[in-house]
Design a protein that fits this description.
Arc Repressor Mutant, subunit A, 3-stranded antiparallel β-sheet, homodimer, Jelly Rolls, alpha+beta, DNA-binding
Chain lengths: 228, 228
DNA sequence: CGCGGCTTTGATGTTCATCAAGTAAAGTGG
DNA sequence: CCACTTTACTTGATGAACATCAAAGCCGCG
């Protein structure tokens, strides 16, 4: 199984596994495997069979699907302990969406049958997991609706604020994705995403050097995002 | 509680309550209340406290929210046994979205604490409910992504097919919503929804008289929806 | 039978995608 | 480590798609 079982310090315990007693956690831990992924690697693939329960321990991942016409639609980009690949483990036997690492990431994997058995046995665990998965689904739906409602500049502002506030908690960060991926995220063309970033730069709202972003005037960006 | 407890014939038993034994179902039934809603009435309101578990027994409902700027965003329109108001009963204490009846509807209501207790006690029930809620969330996300990817005509075609296939299972039906509500659903302007319907009519793909719709050439509509 | 809301259509303008062409950056093989 | 190749980024010009505005028709309801 895994070499160094450091589940003791895992944030996840507080969230979903809070209801488990020590022996169960030990057993869970012995069923667990940690898997590292490099930036760009695919964690799971649309259509693949779901055989394990996975959650992101560290890094950053992108949830996406491919449209019939072959383009990529980014559904969300999310950080540790939001196990986006697992939204339908109880309702489907195959993944509906793909997940890939947009930064070097570590994923913890537990046999799905083990989790299901635990779910059946332990009501508190079941409820914690249900709450967590509902929250994630809700976040995705809300974000999608928020984006849909905005125009181009509003969307770009929104996504910059999302990275700054939700993901990195700092006004200075490196974009983890390409301009095209941002475009696929907010449903715009790549050219116009770049154009809008250039506009923001010209107006002194942000500083951009390649992937490096600094939000200079966050208030203005908030206004643009809201008004958009 | 309720006068005539006809839960025996409720389709819901097969879905979520399949795991419950007869006494529990009887108890559940005695906790249940049926509530009728007229077309247009609000079933629950964004921001309201969630105090009960609700599911749609008959009719048709619209899940929506109001944007900061006051416009309505329709999230989905759905039929019985897809209890859309309950997607976050385990993760939030207030509704994030509003639900209203777009046709005369009957909603079954069960005290939330009772459901939660059952969820904790009965693993099978918990799993059934989890699967159901996941499925609904997934359906909403998939539909939103499908719509987002299409252009105007594709979206209108998609929504007509949705009513014809998913909701009414017939090529001839009455639109349960106004043109504006369709526009709010697919994220387009009302005028352009109407224009597109007129175009379809002119091309002989559909017949439209007020709210009455007949899909004449369903194959063509499918092509438009897919290509859109 | 007249009033108000929903629907319809045309005209106009804005927003945004697409195309093209050029530049920078990042791999890749010798 | 450098030349080469490829991929990502950038900007401008153009046109298509779509929203908005306005005016008129329709329909249900008091």
């Amino acid at each position: 199984m895994n070499k160094n079982c450091v589940c003791e310090n895992c944030e996840f315990r507080d969230i979903v596994f809070a209801y488990l007693d020590e022996p169960t956690i030990q057993e869970l831990c012995s069923h667990k495997e940690e898997q590292p992924f490099r930036k760009g690697e695919i964690i799971n693939h649309e259509g693949e069979k779901i055989t394990s329960f996975k959650y992101l321990k560290s890094g950053l991942v992108k949830l996406y699907r491919r449209t019939p016409s072959g383009e990529e639609q980014v559904i969300t980009i999310t950080k540790p302990f939001e196990f986006v690949s697992n939204m339908n483990i109880f309702s489907e036997d195959r993944y509906h969406y793909s997940v890939s690492a947009v930064e070097d990431s570590v994923v913890c994997t537990i046999n799905l049958d083990f989790i299901k058995a635990l779910f059946l046995k332990n009501g508190g665990f079941a409820m914690g997991l249900m709450a967590k998965i509902s929250k994630i689904n809700d976040k995705i739906i809300t974000q999608t609706l928020d984006i849909r409602q905005k125009n181009l500049v509003g969307r770009v502002a929104f996504i910059l604020l999302y990275f700054a506030k939700e993901i990195y908690s700092t006004r200075v960060f490196d974009l983890p994705v390409s301009r095209k991926e941002i475009a696929d995220y907010i449903g715009m063309s790549t050219a116009n995403v770049i154009r809008t970033l250039s506009d923001f730069k010209r107006e002194g709202i942000i500083k951009v050097v390649g992937k490096a972003i600094e939000i200079v005037n966050i208030e203005k960006l908030e206004i643009i995002s809201k008004r958009g």
